Amino acid sequence: MTVIQTEALTKRYGSSQVAALADLSIEVGDGVTGLVGANGAGKSTLIKILLGLLAPTSGSASVLGHDIRADGEAIRQVVGYMPEHDCLPPDMRCIDFVVHMGRMSGLPPAPARERAADVLRHVGLAEERYRLMGGYSTGMKQRAKLAQALVHDPALVMLDEPTNGLDPAARDDMLALVQRIGHDFGIPVLVTSHLLGELERISDHVVVLDGGQLLRSEATQAFLADTGVVLVEVLGEDDAQTRMGEALAARGLVCRPRGTMIEIDPVEVEGAGDDAAAAALAHDRLRDLVRDAAADLGVGLVRLQPQTGRLEDVFREEVPA
Ligand SMILES: Nc1ncnc2c1ncn2[C@@H]1O[C@H](COP(=O)(O)OP(=O)(O)OP(=O)(O)O)[C@@H](O)[C@H]1O
């Protein structure tokens, strides 16, 4: 199901010649969609336009079937939004704030209190809910912001940099929460990050922006597909890695050292039928050549593993240095 659709969406701030978003056409569906790009790539601009908070310069978009220009209010009623920056009143208790946000979204008093208690439990703030938010850690503030985005049982959530300022453990917890929202609760999620690799594990689909332009929009699996490159680690005398590299080169393989490993480019095979069959044959041939080289040299083969792609590689491939 398509939950967000944009068509040639462009945004210029003021009289700026540089577009913060340029001709962006994307579709977002169910599950977790990662919106990835460096600082200034246009992620927050896109989210604000989708919420009807900011008017695009040109182009069109719809969210859950609502037009962003005409139906901003209807969109904000059914979408949960977690803004990037700190927006929590420091002198308010978290529970009161989340109840208030539920009331603002149209919940009657009793259901607002019930929902607030539920979402605060889900985000792990049950015990801290009566404390003033001014005394919260960054991790707790991020959770409170997430709770207010969920309190009115939204049909879609947009989370702007939910892991900002978190240490690695708190970041993992937050990512797990986001994944639960998209998969266990079944609420479609659009989540942004400037850390390219971060959303790989939790998103079903990734949209990559660079300087306001779309670099790629693809299933996460496609980013992480097998590259055909193989990494090898050998065990032996001090110069085992060098000797192994030379032996592989002598067998016609293109390789280079990478840390304690040797990285070997894929071999070409001809007449193997479809792409999958050719890739399988290429892998088999490469593995045979590596095993033979190790056996001839008398070095131990510690590891022989395919290298999969990473989101960072998209920038290496497509953005000129
Ligand atoms: N209110 C504004 N007025 C003028 N320029 C703006 C405004 N808001 C954003 N910009 C510019 O638009 C571009 C995109 O900014 P945006 O905040 O959307 O990027 P982002 O990907 O969300 O980055 P960040 O994570 O740093 O917020 C940047 O060049 C930014 O300087």
Any overview of this molecule?
The chain has ten helices and 15 strands. By secondary structure, it is α/β, with parallel strands linked by helices. The chain folds into two domains: 4-221, P-loop containing nucleotide triphosphate hydrolases (Rossmann fold, 3-Layer(aba) Sandwich); 226-318, Alpha-Beta Plaits, CATH 3.30.70. It has a six-stranded mixed sheet, with helices on both faces. Strands 1, 2, 3, 5 and 6 form a five-stranded antiparallel sheet that branches. Strands 13-14-12-15 form a four-stranded antiparallel sheet, covered by helices on one side. Helix 6 links the parallel strand 8 and strand 9. Helix 4 (109-122) crosses helix 5 (138-150) and helix 8 crosses helix 9 (275-297). Belongs to the ABC transporter superfamily.
Task: Give the SSE layout.
Elements: E1 4-11, E2 21-24, E3 27-28, E4 32-36, H1 43-50, E5 58-63, E6 66-67, H2 72-78, E7 79-82, H3 94-104, H4 109-122, H5 138-150, E8 156-159, H6 168-183, E9 189-193, E10 205-210, E11 213-219, H7 220-223, E12 226-235, H8 240-250, E13 255-258, E14 261-264, H9 275-297, E15 300-308, H10 311-318
Parallel strand pairs: 4-9, 4-10, 7-8, 8-9
Antiparallel strand pairs: 1-2, 1-3, 1-5, 5-6, 10-11, 12-14, 12-15, 13-14
Bound molecules: adenosine-5'-triphosphate.
GO molecular function, one term: ATP hydrolysis activity
Domain ABC transporter: 4-236
Organism: Serinicoccus hydrothermalis
